Amino acid sequence: MASSSSAVPFLFPETNSTILPNPSKFFSPHLLSSPLPTNSFFQNCTLKKGDQPEFIHPYLIQASQTSLSICHPSRVATPSFIYQKFVPNITISSHCKTKKNHVISSYSDLSVTLDYPPNLQFFLVRGSPYVTCSVASKTPISISAGHDIRSVSPTGSHKKHTIKLDNGQTWLLYSSSRINLMRSGNRLTSDGFCGVVRLAILPDPRFETILDRFSSCYPVSGDAAFRKPFCLEYKWETKGLRHLLLLAHPLHLQLLSSDDCDVEVLDKLIYESMDGVDNKSIPELVSALITDVEGGLTEFVDGRNQESTSEAVNAYYSAALLGLSYGDMELVAISSTIAAMEIQAAQTWWHIKEGSGRQYEHEFSKQSRVVGVLWANKRDSGLWFAPPDWRECRVGIQVLPLSITEVLFSDLVFARELVKWVSPALATEKWKGFAYALEGLYNKESALQKIRSLKKYDDGNSRTNLLWWIHSRN
């Protein structure tokens, strides 16, 4: 509630922290006048040394002071998790020696541009099968491999090179003009080059003609826009010639509408991969803030992560209800759209159906019906607060709070699978209620008997809440 003695909202004073990692050194000066992102897909490039890998689909990239390393990772599956290990397959740098950090000169919803003074600029766009580097003036560049180079084969124009490594990978290098590469061990060096260089892994020889065809058009930025109700548009700024090639993951393919978007799906190209406060409350808040800023921004080896899909769904569902209360139809439309997308994302990435085999290896999926924490570069069966074998917590964190749960778990066959999977592990009394709530979607009487026997409930849940839930189902 706002203070009655002042109409001016309280603002925490600006301060310089000696504790937090300061990301500003990794951003171009013209970006510092605006708030900087604190949970972006490129966060690891801005914290501490800025050299933890990030997954941008389909590549893991690692930004060091003078170079950018690219990895097309292989997946490792165990009963507890699925992850991708970073190995620097290809590293690009220039011969110009500098003590300056890489700098973010621009960023958007789906892209980030990394500058390496004085001449290299990388356009890193999520979902691009190519990594694109612009060389501003004639500069000798270096391309090194983390494995032995078996062969380098240029075309007659020297605008395309095929690089084969002894780990079985084949990389295609495209250049906007002739580039002369000289090989020395596992390093390729060029004389002065000016223009655009693009690198793409060739996962299958059949894809080469497709990669050749789209190599001349490259994206420099990408935004997600809500331009009309219940519709999300991806807008790309491109340079070069012809059409843009980007990769879509399975959820994109579900959402693509052939009626209102000019997209051609190439089935043969597949890549593995918190208002105002009373002034009397201010000192306590400031004291708490000083303590809190020390759990600041954190880099993670496996990138950003999400645990509870149901909390995300309910955040946007609540925003839609707020829009209905205030008569703000734009807020209703946007929030409903995002809530629907969160639901589909949860059903695609977190819900592991028996025998589906669509997303995850059998080694992982045979013992899991739901993902615990989904990282940019890892699928984990454990939770932030619980080990993998606490199945009731893994289910509960994807169910709470009970609201539009029956939409999130609209597949009743899967809901039954999930309850069957978690039932033998129902040891913690307060978490049992969420499993029984799921059972109530398809067997009210059985769920009701179990709920009546409960003695403890998780925060935000209660006997009344569960009884309301069961009795209000169809």
From TrEMBL:
The reply to whether Hydrolase figures as a keyword in the UniProt entry is yes
**Residue ranges of domain Glycosyl hydrolase family 81 C-terminal in the record:** 295-470
Q: Which Gene Ontology terms cover its molecular function?
A: endo-1,3(4)-beta-glucanase activity; glucan endo-1,3-beta-D-glucosidase activity
One GO term (biological process): cell wall organization
Q: Which reaction does it catalyse?
A: Hydrolysis of (1->3)-beta-D-glucosidic linkages in (1->3)-beta-D-glucans
Q: Tell whether Hydrolase is among the UniProt keywords.
A: yes
Its EC number is 3.2.1.39
Residue ranges annotated for the Glycosyl hydrolase family 81 N-terminal domain, each copy included: 33-276
Q: Which UniProt keywords apply?
A: Carbohydrate metabolism, Cell wall biogenesis/degradation, Glycosidase, Hydrolase, Polysaccharide degradation
**What family classification does the UniProt entry report for this protein?**
Belongs to the glycosyl hydrolase 81 family.
**Which protein, by its recorded name, is this?**
glucan endo-1,3-beta-D-glucosidase
Per the UniProt record, the source organism is Papaver somniferum
